[in-house]
From TrEMBL:
PANTHER family: TRANSCRIPTIONAL REGULATOR SLYA, TRANSCRIPTIONAL REGULATOR, MARR FAMILY. This is MarR family transcriptional regulator. GO terms for molecular function: DNA binding; DNA-binding transcription factor activity. It holds the Pfam family MarR. GO terms for biological process: response to stress. The keyword Transcription applies. The lineage of its organism: Bacteria, Pseudomonadati, Bacteroidota, Flavobacteriia, Flavobacteriales. InterPro entries: HTH_MarR-typ, MarR/SlyA-like, WH-like_DNA-bd_sf, WH_DNA-bd_sf.
Amino acid sequence: MTQTGDLQFESTELSSGFLLWQVTMAWQRSIKKELDKLDITYTQFVLLTTLDSLLLQTNIVSQIDIANHSYTNRMMVSKVLRTLEEKKMIQRKDHPTDTRAKIINLSPFGKESLEKAIIVVKEVDNAFFSVLGPYKGVLDLNMKSLWENTKE
């Protein structure tokens, strides 16, 4: 038994937080290994996917829209979008009504890269989580419940 003050675990491996951390790191290694081949990070993938989803609803998508829809930090989104623009995956144009904002669009190269990345991420997720068999749905529901209860 591990004991520090009032904290007790039969072993570190029984701590939910530790297990989540270990599983997350293993999943991140798997995703990174494959997305590196496309010169894209998972964060870039999420923001491109978010942009693509928003563009199906409207032709005016701002950086703030992307941050809000992806539940991510606005400053981080700004930095990642700059990188995506340098990689020629997105294009920025002046917003028609807000002089402080820019309209964000996927470039043809960005759309092509995203389509490839979606396939890669689905394959990695399917392989990684396949060990759960029929319990994957239960994991998804539990993770969604945790996420819903921690949204700010």
